[in-house]
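seq:
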Amino acid sequence: MANNEVNNRWAILYCPKRDIFRPQKRWERIEKILNEKGVVFDKVQSENSNSVERLVNMMINNGYKTIIIVGGDSALNDAVNCLMQAPQEVREEIALGVIPNGVMNDFARYWEIKEGEEEQTIDWLVKHRVRKIDLGCVRYTNREGERCHRYFLNCLNIGLIASVMNLRRQTRRLFGSRTLSFFTSFLLMVFQRMEYKMNLKINSDVIKRKVMTVCIGSARGYGQTPNAVPYNGMLDVSVVYHPQVAQLIEGFYLLFTNKFLNHRSVHPYRTTEVEVNEAAHALVSVDGRLMNTPEGPFTVGIEQEVINFLIPG
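struct:
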């Protein structure tokens, strides 16, 4: 295939939901709209979450300049981590877009790109309005003593919320449905450890105490960092101390009404780096997916304007 032909074609990665009836119907609807809009594209479908990085790397290596993910936050996370492995000159020529198709579509919702509004979304993607966006980055040592890093679009969670993400994965094996497993996880969290001994450094503040959960967001972090924006070169941080039961219920109400920072147990910060010197027994999740818990101290920073993202316009 000639280079100019590849340049004009979209590479589309379709990540079907496993818990809906006849997921292929969703793709057929998207395909119909793409054809009506005259979009020229090549489509591949992921077999599972483990195949996303392999398929995105294939798209990058084959020279596609527009890569569209039909999926949720986890698939987008895999895509940006693949792009960050590419040489900068290659990455600069690629634009990444999303058609929401996941349980967690928080990054798409930040841009008011909504699931079920495929025609509007594709109209925006065709206009090819690009915004350079930031990525958060966690740098850590794994159990084998290797230095590692992982990028994120949305947020990194330490503590209770990461535990909820792990419960969701376990209960999904039992129930099959991602949505049902997510709500079941919240019900089961009452049996989880609610506090973790932490030692954090944020700007000039050192926090040495028991903490319920920490959210470090480049974007709004599933409502926990609602004022974060993915293009200002900063991270928003919410540190949540352990509230009483009544306060915990109030906290969930404020979370779902976008008033999370009003809760008395939430302590917000804005910074370019967080040092996590201790987070005993706390799980860590990145963009909603549990990651291998770092061994020992780790840092979370920001990489400014490193991804070309297609936004509404």
